[in-house]
Amino acid sequence: MKEMKFYGKPLPNVEIEPYSGKLIVIEGTDGVGRSTHVALLRTWLESIGYAVLDTGMTRSVLAGRGIKNARAGHTLGRLTMQLYYATDFADRLENQMLPALHAGFIVLTDRYIYSAIARAVVRGADPEWMRAIYGIGLVPDAVFYLRLASVEELAARVLASGRGFDYWESGMDLGLGNDYYDSFIAYQKLLLKEFDRMSGEYGFQVIDASRSIKRVENDLKRLITRVIESEPAGTEATVSVGGSPSAKENIPG
Amino acid sequence: MISYGHHRYPGRLFVVEGTDGSGKSTQLLLLYQWLKAEGYPVFFSEWNSSPLVKDTTRRAKKRRLFTPATFSLLHATDFADRTERDIVPPLKAGAIVLADRYIYTAFARDVARGCDRAWVREVYKFAVKPTVAFFFRAPLDIAIDRIASARPTLKYYEAGLDMDWSDDEEESFKIFQGKILDEYDHMVSEFGLTVIDGTQAIRTQQRQMREIVSRYLKEKLKEKVVLTK
């Protein structure tokens, strides 16, 4: 069991009790392979008997749909967008992550407060303001920062994935370049700088993501095993996984 | 850095605050009519008016998805949209903006729900500082009577039923409004709110309000912009 520690003041009306699960964050810029690794890790963890909840930005019941609609129309101002993301985060933290952690799950999150802060700061938001808002965040058990220094390679990966460039991933709202490619390169460079800046502040474990998927995966498995085994025996999820943690609406806040 | 704080826009921002039933909306409407008749460009901004956040708020209220933190953050999101869309542009254009409820509503309500005082103030750091913030103060029993006569049933969040203070709707509402009033009283000196005694006759209150507002008006404000709204 581990005591809950928050970056700032904890959320109101949330029981601050020790928890038996683990909060593991996968961070990194767009195209670095976060979602691939979250999927691989989930399968692996479940195969060795751990119950897993995976979550990521804009997947909240409360604000997910609203954010997606707003993004599609490109019509929300920058301040508004940052606060919408914070709402989404708070909803997922309270209604998905914390209950799962108390129930002994391993929570794998694709991005956490760091991406939200980085994206806001490169858009001109006050870094102190963002840190104060996200003070409600629980300090994770581990943050793995998948780092790929060459933004040209990030761009190549995005193309290879077949998805192509996305308006927001390319930072088109910032007017950094004349086309999606130039804008993507300039925007991801700015994000990389912010992530690097946060790396020491938040104790990221940096994973070199320029290597093959297999090698990155092996590194992650090795490091996560260490995180899981840092606890006395008996914390394995021997609980039944009957109630799906994704159907969180019925869990009281 | 995007932070409006102490603005230097040519316009003026007057806001009204107070518990439900304090009479503030009536007063703001009267002020609006007067300013319009005087020939000033006036722009009205209401709480909960952002069309893009409205659907989320409505759905969350209906399905009771809110916690104190998400209630606070989603209302801050709405307020940010209001600031970026409805408040800053007219102020820049030199208009008079009237706001029915402002950040102080959020401070009172969210802290009454258990949010941390300093945190809520930090979240709203981007807000434009009003030219004058009026606080219409009415004793709790009067405010509650006014609401009871205007609205037969209270809504779930409005009555603070999410907080489990009491199972009784009316009792819960009274507890909630009492906490809100305490918070307002604390904010009078913290933010220099201008207190208007809400038990006075409507015309008396309006006279006081107009007297104060007129100190911040200049003839040349009339020439600045033409608003159709």
What this model shows, in words?
The complex is a heterodimer of chains A (253) and B (229). Chain A is 45% helix and 11% strand. Chain A contains eight helices and five strands. Chain A has a five-stranded parallel sheet with strand order 2-3-1-4-5, with helices on both faces. The two termini of chain B are 31 Å apart. The mean pLDDT of chain B is 88. At the A-B interface, α2, α3 and α5 of A face α2, α3 and α5 of B.
Query: What is the correct CATH architecture of one domain in chain A?
Result: 3-Layer(aba) Sandwich
Query: Main β-sheet of chain A, in a few words?
Result: 5 strands, parallel
How many domains of chain B? The number is 1
Category by helix and strand content of chain A: alpha/beta
CATH class of one domain in chain A: Alpha Beta
**What structural class do helix, strand and pairing data of chain B support?**
alpha/beta
Largest sheet of chain B: 5 strands, parallel
Highest CATH level, the class of chain B:
Alpha Beta
Q: CATH superfamily name of chain B? A: P-loop containing nucleotide triphosphate hydrolases
Give the CA-CA distance, first to last residue of chain A.
Answer: 21 Å
Q: Could you give the order of strands across the largest sheet of chain A?
A: 2-3-1-4-5
Instruction: Work out the oligomeric state of the chains in this entry.
Output: heterodimer
Rg estimate of chain B, integer Å: 18 Å
User: Going across the major beta sheet of chain B, what is the strand order?
Assistant: 2-3-1-4-5
Shape label of chain B? globular
Order of helices and strands of chain A: EHEHHEHHEHHEH
Q: What percentage of the residues of chain B does DSSP assign to strands (E)?
A: 5-15%
